[in-house]
Structure formats: C-alpha cells, structure tokens
Design brief:
By secondary structure, the chain is α/β, with parallel strands linked by helices. The chain has two domains: 3-99, HAD superfamily/HAD-like (Rossmann fold, 3-Layer(aba) Sandwich); 112-143, no CATH class. It contains four helices and four strands. Strands 3-2-1-4 form a four-stranded parallel β-sheet, with helices on one face. The protein is globular, with a radius of gyration of 19 Å. The structure holds magnesium ion. The site of magnesium ion (MG) has 7 residues, from loops.
Length: 144
C-alpha cells in the first residue's frame, strides 16, 4: 500500500482559478482504481492552504467555504472516502508519490541535477537562465 498525494487544480480538474475547472477525463475513475488497488489516496492542494502564498492568513470563513466547495465536489463525484490534507502545521505530508501538474520527476541519481536543470528553467519560464546554463554546458563539452 502506498500513500499517494494528488493535487487538485490542473491535475484532477482543469485549471480555472479562482473558479473550479471540470474533471479531467479519467480522473475520478483513476482515483477509484488506485483505492481499489489498496492505495491510500488523498488530496493535497494549495487551494486549501489556510495561508496565501505571501504568508498572510486567509479569512477563516472564506477558507472553510473553499474547503466545503471542494469536499462537496469530491463527494458528488463518489469520492467521499478521499481525505483532504489541510494540516499545514504538520508540514509536508508523508507520501510515496505526488501526482501534480507542477511537479517534475527527479531521478535521484548522481548527475540528476545537471540533467533536469534546463527543463526546470524552461518550466518556470526563465529562458535567460536556461540559455546561460546551456551555453555553459556547450563550453564544457567543447573543453572535453
Ligand atoms: Mg496544480
């Protein structure tokens, strides 16, 4: 049994912030299949973080309404069993796998960083740094 954390916006549903998008085809069925295979699947979304990205606390009533909105959406999709992680005091939840549209696979091997760095820079839209990293890699290759 694995603990699988699943993002919401852009992963289970299409991006529509601050609204809520449509379920991605296969998302609901896949959650059920993971659960039926014996895995612990739970929702882990920054949408349900009680703080804004700048650290300010959200209005508790607004945050609770957002939580209810997502809970109702899960419930009406037959996913009432799906836990929603909200305990940010606990920090990053324990999981074996994170499914997230903003995540990048890290191989965890020597040399992995130099292999993924260009893709990371492109993913965050930092083309200047991407060009600098690629130019440096080209210089190293020419020195070999
Ligand atoms: Mg997302």
């Amino acid at each position: 049994m694995s603990r699988i954390a699943v993002d919401f916006d852009g992963t289970l549903v299409t991006k529509a912030w601050p609204g809520i998008g449509e379920w991605f085809p296969g998302a609901i069925r896949s959650m059920h299949e993971l659960r039926e295979a014996g895995h612990h699947v739970f929702l882990y979304s920054s949408r349900l973080n009680p703080c804004w990205p700048d650290g300010r606390e959200r209005d508790p009533g607004e945050w609770e309404a957002e939580l209810r909105r997502v809970r109702e959406m899960l419930d009406s999709a037959g996913l009432a069993w799906m836990e929603i992680f909200t305990d940010i005091k606990q920090g990053k939840p324990h999981f074996d796998l994170l499914i997230d549209d903003k995540a990048m696979f890290f191989p965890g091997r020597p040399g992995s960083w130099s292999k993924i760095l260009p893709a990371v820079l492109l993913k965050v839209g930092d083309e200047d740094s991407f060009e600098a990293v690629m130019a440096e890699a080209d210089r190293r290759t020419e020195d070999e």
